[in-house]
Amino acid sequence: MAKSLIVKPNSALKNKTGSWRTFRPEILLDACIGCGTCAKVCPEGTIALAKINGQTKARINYDYCKGCGICAAECPVKAIIMKPETK
After folding, report:
1. DSSP, residue by residue, the chain
2. CA-CA distance, 35 to 58, in Å (whole number)?
3. Cα distance between residue 81 and residue 63, in whole Å
């Protein structure tokens, strides 16, 4: 039986992939409303909601974020901006 070439979702969580990112999403915490849309649309599951100063806000695990920008494009309040990656 041949092996499947289809990769399971969230496969990046097993391998750090953030090192080849060109752009990185940055969350504007003052603008973030904690709706979770970014976490839902992230194809690698690298965004989670967390309590920050008593408010729910999005947090990104940059070790695994590939910088695709889907989170920024889908944020209903534009609280995520894409910035060039600096090393």
Report:
1. -PPP-PPPTTGGGGS--GGG-SEEEEE-TTT-----HHHHH-TT--EEEEEETTEEEEEE-TTT-----HHHHH-TT--EEEEE---
2. 8
3. 18
Using CA atoms, how far apart are residues 29 and 8, in angstroms rounded to an integer? 31
Cα separation, 3 vs 29, in Å, equals 44
In CATH, 14-84 is 3.20.20.70: no
Asked if 36 and 58 count as a contact pair (C-beta separation under 8 A), the reply is: yes
Q: What are the boundaries of each domain within the chain?
A: 14-84
Tokens of 5: 């070439």
Model confidence, pTM: 0.79
Per-residue confidence (pLDDT) for residue 17, from 0 to 100: 73
pLDDT tens by residue, 18-32: 677 899 999 999 999
Q: What is the mean pLDDT of the chain?
A: 87
